Every structure is written in C-alpha cells, then in structure tokens.
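Preliminary data (for renewal application), adenosine-5'-triphosphate complex.
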Amino acid sequence: MTLTISITDLTKRYRRGDARPALDRVTLTVDGGMTALLGANGAGKTTLMRICVGVLRPDEGRVVVGGHDLATAAGRRAVKRILGYLPQELAMYDDLTGREFLDYIALLKGVDDRRTRRDQIERMLDLTGLSEHANRRIGTYSGGMKRRLGIAQALLADPELIIVDEPTAGLDPAERMRFRSLLASLGGARRTVVLSTHILDDAAQTCPDAIVLHRGRVAYQGSTAGLAAIAEGRTYLLPPGAPAPPDAVVVNASADAAGTRYRVVSARPPAEGTLVPPTLEDGYAALLQLDGSAA
Ligand SMILES: Nc1ncnc2c1ncn2[C@@H]1O[C@H](COP(=O)(O)OP(=O)(O)OP(=O)(O)O)[C@@H](O)[C@H]1O
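Predicted structure:
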C-alpha cells in the first residue's frame, strides 16, 4: 500500500493583507508513484511542498499524509520519519566529505545502529554514482554532484514519501539525464514521489501524474498524458516564414535558412500549418490559454 497525501482547502498568506494568497483553497489528493508538480514562478509549488513536509504552517485547511494529520505535533513527527525531502536550497557543510554529511543526516533521521548506517550510506553513494567521490570535501563538488548528494540524503532510511523541489535546475544535460533516470527508478509501487519542476520534459519522462498550480490555485490534476491531450487538435507547426495567429501561444520557434518556424497552440486553425500531436509542453500552454491567463 502506498501512502496518500490528502490536502483540503489549503490557504496560505505570507503577510496579512496580501492581495493574492500564495495558496488559495487548494484541494488535492496525491497517490503512490510519481507526480509532477508544475507551475510558473510564484505559482505556489514550494509553499505547498513546505506545508506538506511540515516546515510551514497553513492559515487554513488540512493536510493528512499517510493518515498523519500535520496540524498535530505527533503527526508532524510521524511524517518526518517516513519522509525524504530535497528542498530547492539544501544547506550542506562544505568542510564535510560526502560520506560524513550522509552519516550526519542518517543520525538525524534516527538510524542509530552504526553498521546499518554504514550499509545504507554505501547503498546511496552507489545509487547516486558518488562512491568514488565520497571522501572528498563537499566544497570541491560540482553542482550536479551536490544535487546527487541531495537526493542521496533524501533517500536515506528508505522513505515512503519523497518530495523534491526543482532537482534538475542548473544541471548540464548529461547530469540532468542521469538525475532523471535516478528519479524514475524511485517511483516504484512502494513510494509516493512528488517532483516539482519547471522542466516539462523531465515531468513527461518520469511522472505518470501531474498537478498544475496557477497563481496559488489548482489548474489541473490528472494524468500527464491527459494534460498533454488538452492541446489535442490545436497544436500546429507553421511553415517557415508564416506568422503566428494573434491569439496563439507560441510554444517554441526554430530558425533556419528558410526562416523561422513556429510551433503554436491555437484554438483557431492558422491560415497555414500542420496539425501535430501535442507534447506536455503544448498541453500546459493550452491549459493556461484556456484559463485565459497565458503568460
Ligand atoms: N517567505 C516568503 N515571504 C513572502 N512571500 C513569499 C515567501 N515565499 C514565497 N512567497 C510568495 O508566495 C508566492 C508563491 O511562492 P512559491 O515560492 O511557493 O512559488 P513557486 O511556485 O515555488 O515559485 P518558483 O517556481 O519560483 O520556485 C509568490 O508570490 C512568492 O512571492
């Protein structure tokens, strides 16, 4: 049985009198497997994740994680025991080696037995490809290696629930692919994984389910394929030089010697253009367009 996160009517304002709350009556259910949490800058993703891991309190609403109510101290303690969390900015100690850092985190997570701790750390180092760098000081690690160490610490003590906030931001393409397959290998039947990302390709490759937050509200919850399908019948590739229709969202543009070629999502068919199967990016653009607030 995988763990479920039930979120009901969650509202969070950072300052009293803020015109728009960071989260506005958010109601969601997150089941096992991998779920992508999508949304523009400031949509409320980090706020939602911080509330779900118990480090931030909502103004209103309720979060129950695996049967534990986060409104209670006992509930928050219970969730900490089953949680692996990789925040956007994870504080690491540059003077520690990777192995020492993991040892410290494992102790904080209550893995008291030295041998169990050592075995778990070796497993995580191996899984994240850091074994040969484990005795180097973290201060000498690349950004990608620090991210991998971040996921290694999140996975210590075999958590049932994993929440990761933009884990691939700033990584080069090779590190990103490596990280992506590592994440995909985690989302097995036993775990509930929430992955917040701006990189829709990462979500499309790893997550069967998706949530889109828009200005603090839920704009979509369902399958990733269903999100892509919102742009079905309205995604067009325009020939070089053809202008994008005025009400279309330009998903991308590529230029070559023949001119610029636009990929657009448009409710109305353009004068010239070929209908193409939509990607997750197209579906996301269509969703925000339908919402009347494409950014
Ligand atoms: N500590 C804070 N104090 C005041 N306002 C905040 C604070 N943290 C976030 N906000 C505001 O709350 C809203 C939601 O922010 P949040 O960081 O949750 O969004 P996000 O979707 O994670 O964005 P990003 O993709 O840029 O990380 C934004 O308007 C942001 O400015």
